[in-house]
Amino acid sequence: MHLKPAGLLLALILSAAATPIMLGAASPAAAQQPFDTDQPTLVTADEITYSEELDTVTARGSVELSQGDRILRADRVTYNRRANLVTATGDVTLLEATGEVIFANYVELTGDMKDGFARDMRVLLTDNSRLAGASGTRVGGTRSILRKGVFSPCDLCAEDPGRPPLWQLKAERVVHDETSKDVIYNDATLEFFGVPVAYTPYFRHPDPTVERRSGILAPTYGFSEDLGVNVGVPYYWAIAPDKDATLEPVYFSREGIMLKTDYRQRFGNGMIDFAGSLAYVDNRDAGLETGDKDFEGHIDGTGEFHLSDTWRAGFDVERTSLRTYQERYNIGDPETLTSRAYAERLDGLDFFRVETMAFQGLRSFDVSEETPLIAPFVQYATVGHPGPYGGRVSVDAEALSLTREIGADQHRFSLLAGYELPYIGPIGDVYRLRATLQSDLYYAEDATNQIDPGAVESGFAARFFPQIGLEWGLPFVKQTGNVRQVIEPTVQLVAAPSGSTLIEVSNEDSQALTVDDSNLFLLNRYTGYDRVSGGSRIDYGIKYEAYGRRGSSSFFLGQSYRLQTDNSYLGGSGLEDNASDIVGRIRIAPSPNFTFNYRFRFDAEELSATRNEIGVAGRLGPLSLATNYVLLDDQLGQIGVGSREEVSAAFTLRLTDYWSLAGRTTQSLGEDDGGRDIAASLTYQDECFLIAFDYERDFTEDIGIEPRDAFFIRFYLKHLGGFGTN
Prior knowledge:
This protein is mainly β.
C-alpha cells in the first residue's frame, strides 16, 4: 500500500508555507530575500508592506514565494516577527517538487515549524489521487493530524463533479507519526458511490518513507472439489535491509495443511532466492487415498554471483517429493525440474562455462533411475575478428560426462572448428563460404545402438566429420511507389561424408529435428553433437518480400536434395529420403491490425501435409482475436511425442471503456479428441478499481489429478491493495 498520508502532506505544506521570511523595507515590487542562509527565496506580490508598530511583513495580491523547486501561492502572506508566526490566506496553493499540488484556505505555522494549522486542505497527488480534510494540525514537530479526512484515487465525474467517486476512504482522524513512521486512521469507513460498505475503528499502515516492514499481507482463499476450502494467510518478514522472507500457512479442508515460504537475500555481488513448501496432507497410493497422512514438499531456489568483470557463478535447485505434487496444489505444472550449478566467463568474443545438471522428470512415463546426471558439462566458444577478406574463424569445444543408475553412461569430448567467408559479386550476387570440422571422442557404457535399438554397445568411439558449404543468392529489388519488393533465389551446395552417425553411442542431445524454413540452410541441422547431417546435398529455395508504409508480406519455399542415402536423419524429420519434404512460410500483414502466418511442410511425393501451422491475429474496433491451428506428424525416436493436431483461440472484447470480456481455449483434434483447457474472464478496470471474474476448465488427468473447474475472483483498490481467490 503506497497511500501518501495526510499527516506527511500537511507537514510539507505547513513547513514550506511558514519558513521564516526576512524582508527588508516595504516595496510594491518583487523582492528577493533568503528563507534561510542556505537557499534564496524569490517573493513576488502586487504589494509588500512592513508595519514597524506590529513588526509584521505582509505580501498582498498574487503572492508567490519560490524556493528551489517548491512554489507557494496565496492571496496574502503575513510574517509576524514578534510572534514568530507565518500565515497564508486565500486560495493557498503549494506546488511540490515531486509534482503534488496542495490547496488550503488558511495556513498558520510557528517559525520553528513544530506546530501549525491548516484549514480546508486538499491535495492532488502525482497519480491524480485526491486527499482532503476539514483541518490539519502539526504537533511537536513529529505528529501531523488531519480531521475528517477523505482519500480517493478515483476520477471525479466530468458531468457532475459533486457526485461521490466510485470509492473513497473516510476517517474522523488521520495521524502521521514521523517517529514510528506510521499512518493511523480512527473511525475509518470505505464507501462505494457514497454508500458505506466497510468500517473499522482502527487502521494502521507504514508511511511512504518505509520501503518495507514486517506484517500480515492480504489473505488468499478458494475452493476446489478435490482440495475443498483453502485459506492462506501470508506474513512478510523484513529480517534485515539485505534479506526478507514470506511465510504463508495454507489450510485445505479436505487435505491437510501446508507452509509456503520464500526467502530472499542480496549480497554485494549477487543474490539468492529460495521458495518452497512443506505439506502434511493425505497420503496416496496410485492416486487413491490410503487414509494416512504424510509429509510432501518442494523447493525452487536460485542464486547468482558476479565474481569479477568477466566471471559469474550461480545455481538452480528444483526438486519435489511427489511427481504430481506441484500441479495438484496449484504451485505450477512443469514437465521437468532442473538443478544446476555453474560458473562462466565472458570476455570479449570468448566464452567459457562449466556446470553440473540433475533432472527430475514429472511426466507419467519418466523413470527416475533412467534420468541422467551430467557432471561435468564444459563449454568453450570463441569467434575471431574478421580477416583481410572478411573471413572469420570460430572454435567450439565441449566436454560432457553423463551417467544413470539404469541405462547408458556416456562421456564425450567434441571440438568444432569453423571458417566463414562472405562475398558480394559485381552484379549484387551474394556468396557465403562455410567450412567446419567436428571431432568427437566418446566412451560409452550400455549405450543403445542408434540403428538397432535392441543392441547395446560399450567402449570407445571416434568421429571426424568435415563439412563445407557454398551458398549463393541473387536478390532482385523493385520499387513501386511506396512499396519495395525483393525476390531472392538461394542455392547452397554442401559436401560432407555419408554414414557419419556413430551407432555405438546413444543419441542424447540430438533427438528433436524437423526440417523447416529456419534450418533448411544450416550446415548441420542438429543442435547437438550426437548426430550430424551427413552426406552431400543441395539446398534451394526462393524468398519474396514486400514492404510498404503500413504493412509487409513475405513468402518462402524451399527443399533439400541429398546426393547419397545414409542413416543421418530420424524418422519424422522430413529428411529421411533423398528429396526432403517441401517447406515454406507465408506471412501477410497489410496493416498493424492484422497478421496472417502460415508455416507448412509437405511430403515431396504425395504432397500431403506433414506439418501445418496457421496463425491469424487481428483487431477490429473493440475486438482482438488470435487463432492458431497446428498439425504435426509423429516424431519417431522421441518418447511421448506423437502426432498432434489442435486448434487454439483467444479473444478480448472491450464492451465499454471499463468492461472487457476475454477468453481462450485449446482443443485437440487428434485421436483423444478432447479439450486441453478453456478459460474466460469478465473484468471491470478503471483508474482506481479492478474486479474480475475468472473461470477455467483444466482437462489434465494424472495420478491424483482429475479434470476440474475453477472459479476465481480478483478485487483491487488502488493504493489499498486487494485480494483474490487461490
